[in-house]
């Protein structure tokens, strides 16, 4: 019976075993049964693995060409679903002006459920086309709209954390809730997601940022997250003006505000973290909280550059976020590239600074993202008993870059990170299911 639900992949396989270890299996194999990886190794041992798993010769086999790689699916740790129509707009402004001029006016339109359906259907398809098998979404203020996002993600087979945004101040009146209603709506949204009984889609508590909700509200949300054992997401230290406003309003550092509200947990992901001071970095590390690095939006909105090596030096887990529409595309491979460029920037100003390399940003976009979302036991690489979230990429396609000379598997990966896009992503699998 297992053979009826099994798949075998043969070819060049690359994944990160850790931040410092990239494993390359030339002529390797992976055996998947249902959603799970049950064996991985080099092709000469394949028959032994098949016999051990009683597969016989009935399981379908996918054999990769020499220009193809099997890699883990990408993890996007931070993106705003309703902002997708605004990609490419408003980058002449800085964060706070951009929010008020472009973002809040757009997000307030999502009481229109037809708009929600149209945008979210397009966005989820596009993220899957770009190889994002796991996405951490900010939704809108409106429950019905967020429910549509949940349904869309479930229908298209993506793995996701989805949050109903909490905002009780700091935005136009037509895009605010009163605190008691915001909490009630959040509880209802959590129940809605849980009612789907999906192994792939989970709710995440989502206070927008410290200027959007007060301390009491944040404490109530953290209590809800604790009681339901939920993830948390918000923003931190993205922009200098924002940091100054938080300090002025609360009389303490940004991270301390969240700590006072019990929002810093091992299941919390904070977007950006550009201007964290040493005490904040130590605090975030102690709490086991992670950072979503979003180099595209950091550059487009002229917010600054996040020093990933510094975060690592303090023991903080880091993933990558496209942060659309602060970022331009829901493409993690593009973010890998911009992460490299942003890191090179620091080498011009910090003596003996070692910029990130392509192997490290590949880790950030796969296993690093899984670790940042506390999902590393389920996804992120090709360990036995993890879910099979995977991409087949091909550098020799009819469109896109020209593949003129043979490359080693490592060269294929490097070329893809620097030059590739969705046209090079041939197949996308989530929990063993082909979704592209």
Describe this structure in words.
The protein is of the alpha/beta class. The strands form three sheets. Strands 6, 7, 8, 9, 10, 11, 12, 13 and 14 form a nine-stranded parallel sheet that branches. A four-stranded mixed sheet has the order 3-2-1-4. Strands 5-15-16-17 form a four-stranded antiparallel sheet, with helices on one face. Strand 1 and strand 2 form a beta hairpin. Helix 3 packs parallel to helix 4, helix 4 runs parallel beside helix 5 and helix 12 crosses helix 13. It is globular and about 65 Å long. The chain starts with 5 loop residues before the first strand and ends with a strand. 51% of the residues are buried.
Q: What structural keywords apply?
A:
436 residues; 4-stranded mixed sheet
* Shape summary: globular
Radius of gyration, whole Å:
21 Å
Separate helix tally: 15
The structure class reads alpha/beta
Mean pLDDT: 96
Portion of residues in helices? 25-40%
Low-confidence parts: none
Report how far apart the termini are: 26 Å
Q: Oligomeric form of this entry?
A: single chain
Q: Let me know the largest β-sheet.
A: 9 strands, parallel
Protein name: Guanine deaminase
EC number: 3.5.4.3
Cofactor: Zn(2+)
GO molecular function: guanine deaminase activity; zinc ion binding
List the helices and strands and how they pair.
Layout: E1 6-18, E2 21-33, E3 36-42, H1 46-52, E4 61-63, E5 68-72, E6 74-80, H2 95-107, H3 113-129, E7 132-138, H4 143-156, E8 159-163, E9 165-166, H5 179-195, E10 201-207, H6 215-228, E11 231-236, H7 240-250, H8 254-260, E12 268-272, H9 278-287, E13 290-293, H10 295-300, H11 308-313, E14 318-320, H12 332-347, H13 358-365, H14 367-372, E15 390-394, H15 409-419, E16 425-430, E17 433-434
Parallel strand pairs: 1-4, 6-7, 7-8, 8-10, 9-10, 10-11, 11-12, 12-13, 13-14
Antiparallel strand pairs: 1-2, 2-3, 5-15, 15-16, 16-17
